[in-house]
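YM 10:42: Streptomycin 3'-kinase sequence, as discussed on the call
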Amino acid sequence: MDVGESDATVYRLGDVFAKSCGASGVADLAAERDRVAWLAGTGMPGAVVVDWLESSSDGACLLTSAVPGVPGDALPPSAHGAAMRSFGSALRDLHALTDCPFERPLAAVIASAADVVRRDAVNPDFLTDEWRLLQPSELLSRVVAESPYVESVLEPVVCHGDACLPNIFFDPRTLEVTGLIDLGRLGVADRYSDLALAVIQLHDEWSADPAPFLDAYGLPEPDSRRLEFFRLLDPLTWG
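YM 10:58: structure's back
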């Protein structure tokens, strides 16, 4: 099965997940391996690295333990309220970690978005109906114009980098978070890069008011400008 937005392919082998890629994707998969290993050492719930297989010609395969539970997008509506609170608490704990060796500077993320736009590789499925009416270059211009404000209030923390519901696993009985997956973008970045994606996911996928999530996170009144900025920036970085 194909999972996530990368070019890797993921298979489940009992209690182990195997994520494989071709030669061109080895560096990205190795970066994810290192992030999985680092996060496992912090005590945060999640996978552990089981093995790493690499061939100079064929690519690589990352073997990790399966995270128990179910992804957030598989939870029934009756579970959403409690799950939002667990999600908020788990993200708060992640953002409280220190000494992370990985970084995602805002300038580098914007440069990545500019490259995706230049290659005409923006996926329209990731854009709102309103944004699809504009050229990707116009959307990028909005990001660039707003970036000085975001830089002026930057709050760097350890971010997941793709904090969407399929990447957050829950115990279906207790609704506690059991682990975070797809850590290829984990690194120090503005906390709103995670918050923006989480909030829009809760709205779009669960039709939910994110207040319980934000309350549990400890930010009941977030900065709407930063939420909108990172909500627009994220879809420009995949491609």
